[in-house]
Amino acid sequence: MDFFTAYDGTKLAYHVVGDGPPVVCLPGGPTASAYLGDLGGLSAHRQLIRLDLRGTGQSAVPKDAASYRCDRLVDDVEALRAHLGLERMDLLAHCAGANLAALYAARHADHVSTLSLITASVRAVGVAIPGELRCETAQLRRDEPWFPAAFAALEAIMAGQAAVENWQAIAPFSYGRWDAAARAHQAADQEQQDMDVIAAFGAEGAFDPDTTRASLARFAPPVLVLAGEVDLGAPPRALAELARLFPNARLIVQPGAGHFPWLDNADRFVATTAAFLR
To answer: Domain named AB hydrolase-1: which ranges (predicted)?
Structure first.
């Protein structure tokens, strides 16, 4: 683990895993980057530099809680790039981290070599994900033994009953296999979550979709948009719309994968991502 200092003096941590040309990795949540691990073995091909966003993992809590807002985190990513001495960098982001990556790419396109968006959140670009699409995606799991209870909880959430137990009940939808490894991964990730940080990340003013879309339409570097076939959090149809915002993007849907495709089929995820990063 290493540290650098952000623009406001906040001490931020990053973790280096593997060898080879570096890839800067932005976690979702925002939460500690530990849940990314070595991205299913991608570290055998590239050096992964995982950033703990401010207030998460080993990074310090800032004095100003408003600095958790996604658009303000762009300056932290830029500070990390400068600290690493990279003129241009390969940038990989998962889930909510894709919002930050999109804002960074819009503001600092000249410092990005490639952009990999893994089961991306699409809030920053204003792509709508209708409840009907989430339900349609969820129905792909209807033969699973846990499906009836999880689907009932999903319907309750969509009806405005966002109780903690309902959110917990839909956890199996995030994984291609709801096995012991998935349960352990989900439990560890939940322990790292700070709901105040998560709420501040998307606070009012964080996103300006029209402006971001206009900038990304001029973003020339190659983009990988990787979707999980059964991921109701970021359904392939929504990520296809995300891919169309870029002039040089490729959408790949990983069969049978949920929100964490490197856990569901590590070999396939690594083959796809490593081939793109060459």
So the answer is: 21-265
